[in-house]
Amino acid sequence: MSVLENWNQWKDFLGDRLNQAQDQGMNKEAMGDLAYQIGDYLAKNVDPKNEQERVLTDLWSVASPDEQHAIATMMVKLVQNNGSK
Hints:
The chain is mainly α. It has a single domain (3-79), classed as Cytochrome Bc1 Complex, Chain D, domain 2. The chain contains 4 helices and no strands. Helix 2 crosses helix 3 (51-62) and helix 2 crosses helix 4 (65-79).
């Protein structure tokens, strides 16, 4: 099963990547920019695998760039304490 198929696994995966980025010294602004780029890529190129991803994709599709940055920032906050670290 792909990590994208299960919402909790997806959040854990993102949390692990966030922890790695923080450990390597990436600042919050850079993490937010990267989250925006990943969100934009996923919205344009990956079919949502669960209901939560569908909601995010739908919100992303109607959001302005500023709102998309806000969504990306909220996703970073959501997974900040997730992951296996």
